[in-house]
Design a protein that fits this description.
By secondary structure, the chain is mainly alpha-helical. The protein has helices spanning 2-33, 45-54, 65-87, 108-116, 120-137, 141-151, 157-161, 167-194, 197-212, 220-245, 253-259. It is 70% helix and 0% strand.
Length: 264
Amino acid sequence: MKKNYLIVAGLLLSTLTQAQIGDVLNSIIKDKTGVDLTKPKSGNSTSTNTTTASNSNINLGNLTQTEISSGLKQALNLGVTEGVKKLGVTDGFYKNELVKILMPEKLRKIDTTLRTLGLGSLADQGVKLMNRAAEDAVTEATPIFANAITSMTITDAKNILLGNNTAATNYLQTKTQSQLFTAFQPKVKASLGKVGADTAWKNIISKYNMLTGQAVTTDLNAYVTTETINGVFKMVAEKETGIRNNSALRTTTLLEKVFGAVKK
């Protein structure tokens, strides 16, 4: 029996000694590396660190959903106002490669054929007059876009604010493209007639059909309406990118408060 007690005592002493040695080693490692071996590893530690790092430049503070939504709408309105001002002048579309309206896809063969037959100037005139119609019509776009922006409900403003450089513009386009087209199409139709684009295109298509024996048609009004609206959106996207990345373009307190909370 005595022998058994001695064996148990020996085992306890051995265990205690190992624990003490372990404590000493952990203390040394913690002092040298900052790593505490006694703390259990968390399966989410990597995820937490990643999240913290990715959000290190974000400080939304006490911004409310209403403030964020209003800030986004203000940026969009500013983009529309400035964009329309740049586009609604002579060559605003025609000499701006970002928004220039080209020959409709289905009519590209007309362009090629006319140039082959030495009628390139006729094709050039058609393209130029489409852009002239857009330049004329776009001056009517500001109130149409402003109404769409005002009536738009931004259901996830925070995610849009934290999104990419054109997240707000993309959201606006998705939510309002259809209503903008409906409201803007009559303006474009009037402009096509005003600058003579409708007559010129009837002449172009008629001549092409006569020379080739084909019967090509196109809805010029729908095409120019869509391209004009897309041109405005491109300008708005450009402005949004600027506001997000350049504090000098945040010309109001609200813009600075909202977009300044997301540092680049």
